[in-house]
Amino acid sequence: MGAQMRFENWDEIRTAYQVARMGTVSGAAEVLGVHHATVIRHVDALETRLGTKLFQRHPRGYTPTEAGQQLLAVGQATEDQFAQLAARIAGAGEEMRGELIITSLPALAALVMPAMAELMRAHPALVLRYITDPRVFRLEYGEAHVAIRAGARPTEPDNVVSQLGVNRTALYAAPEYLERHGRPKGAQDLAGHRFVGPDSRESRAPFFRWLAGQVPPEAMVFMANEMASQQAAIEAGLGLGFLPVLQGRAIPRLVEVVAPMAEWDSPFWLVTHVDLHRTPKVQAALKALRSAAVRLDPGV
Fold first, then answer.
1. What is the number of other CB atoms lying within 10 angstroms of the CB of residue 32?
2. In what residue span(s) does the HTH lysR-type domain sit (predicted)?
3. Full 3-state SS string of 58-100
């Protein structure tokens, strides 16, 4: 049986199960919503395929043989399992349990962590995954439930987008750097200073575009493709460098030498896929993230 039964035979099996359950061709046809001739054809084909009789036919209907009784038992168990599966699938989106994936740039961890703590206190059955990566995760493929993105407003047609806040950026330095090179008096007093920055002067970040217009290329003495490496270089005293305020103000030894400027700001966005946006898990995550953003917004 197992070697011969393939997926395309499920209609025949389901039909035979209903005949065994109802006891008549007409009863099975009514349950399945098909013509009685279809029921007879399915049963005959399945018996031929199996090489055994599933029913004894008589004027009052169809009585399962021993093989038919086995089919009835397995069919009932299978139907029950499918019903349970359907109920679990229907209820999965309503339950506050299971995995919830949130992704953002690494620099936004200071915003995300308090929200995650709040979420886990309220819903301890949740399992949270937080993925920090510069790449854009594809929500339509289930790579994440909630994405926090910075920069231009995301435009994917199947995503729901709302602004979470503003990513404010300031210019920081280590005390060792300031001892050697002095402290700038402001944004217009950067001549002669050394800078830490991205690996490309084509960076789209507004603060790096601003800096490119203020200092010559040779002033950029340390370049790295990741913000974590840039932060390490700033802390090591290699130069002045930009950090998100959420990140920079959490490092006590760094000095904020130029406060955030409006032209350095960039918005960040909450992004969810339209199919999951209104599920309780996603809504709870959005609420927690918005609350955290309000509490942590440092202002200018």
1. 19
2. 8-65
3. ECCEEEECHHHHHHHHHHHHHHHHHHHHHHHHHHHCCCCCEEE
Strand partners, 172: 241, 256
What is the DSSP-derived secondary structure letter of residue 34? S
DSSP label of 153: P
Closest CA to 171 of 106, 239, 220: 239
Residue 87 · residue 248 · CB < 8 Å = no
Task: Dig out the tokens for 187 from the structure.
Answer: 């944004």
pLDDT in tens, the chain (300 residues): 444 445 457 888 889 999 999 999 999 999 999 999 999 999 999 999 889 999 999 988 999 999 999 988 888 888 777 776 766 665 555 567 788 899 998 878 888 898 999 999 989 888 899 998 778 888 888 888 999 988 889 888 889 999 998 888 999 999 999 999 999 998 889 999 999 988 876 677 888 889 888 889 899 999 998 888 999 999 999 999 999 888 898 899 999 999 999 999 888 899 999 988 888 889 999 999 998 888 876 443
Q: How far apart are CA 20 and CA 10, in angstroms?
A: 15
Select the CATH number that applies to the domain covering 10-89 from these four: 3.40.50.12280, 3.40.50.720, 1.10.730.10, 1.10.10.10: 1.10.10.10
Instruction: Report d(CA 96, CA 92) in Å as an integer.
Output: 8
Strand partners, 128: 100
Q: How many residues does the chain have?
A: 300
What is 169-264's CATH number?
3.40.190.10
Strand partners, 197: 223
Tell me the domain boundaries of the chain: 10-89, 104-163+274-295, 169-264
- Token pair recorded at residue 264: 């350095």
Tokens of 269: 């966005």
